[in-house]
Amino acid sequence: MSWRFVFAVPVILLGLAPNEALAFCRSTTCVGEDCTRDENGCKTSGQPLYWPSSCIGISLQQDSSVHIAFKYFEQVAQRSMLTWTGLECEGGPASIGFSQLDNIACKQTEYNSGGTNANVILFQDTKWVYKGIDNTLAKTTVTFNDDTGEILDADIEINHANNNFTISDMVIEYDLEAVLTHEMGHLIGLDHTPDVSATMFAGYEPGSNDQRTLEEDDILAACEVYSASRSAPCTPEPRGGLGNECGGEANAVDEGGVGGCTNCSQSSSTGAAAWLAPLVLCGFAGARRLRRSRNVVRATKGDG
User: Is 297 helix (H, G, I), strand (E, B) or coil?
Assistant: First the structure.
């Protein structure tokens, strides 16, 4: 069964002053027009998304991009992960971090409920298959348990087929590190914030690298989800074990009838200078349901 729902975060002009009140938002399991929201547009219904582990295993797609050598891709990815690691929260550091696992051959997003998996960062160099999304820079796909909000898998795709990403501090078009740092926020369960100064704000200004670093709103968000007092094991291995090839070797036991979702269709949305987040329900099986949340980063080309 396939079902799609799209919501668009309102476009907020980049020239506006930051909100006086910090107003971070968490992604939740709620979909549809009946989701309740607070005065900042944050969802208040549904189960908030979170990783049950204190360390997330991340793999890089071994081919990188034809435009960016792997060693530079790896350096940028590592910095983006470190940005969200060791955050100071009340009572100590946030209970979330990353472990870089082996590079993998598979070059697509997927989740295999009965096989091996990988939380992968990859480039799409020649074709961006998601129709109806213009000037898309990147997309994060998160698979989660609908009953609990527990994140099971997450993948980030970078659209180098239609955009020119740069890694230099001197010449910046679409800054890879800024975009990837934002996407890592989605990967850990954060939604867009109305605070225009934050990394998780729903907009990117071409030529800027400001979103390489976190602001107070981002840190407070991470600390709410992954407090220092949270008791969580460090289990970086993906569900079913780390898989190298697409499709996932069927050597893992399906847990409690959780449904699988592979190669889900992408819904479209419109708008400019905004990071929009389509939410897609791809399938379910048994008594427990599983959903895929896709967060898309967009920017307007030209003089912004």
Answer: strand
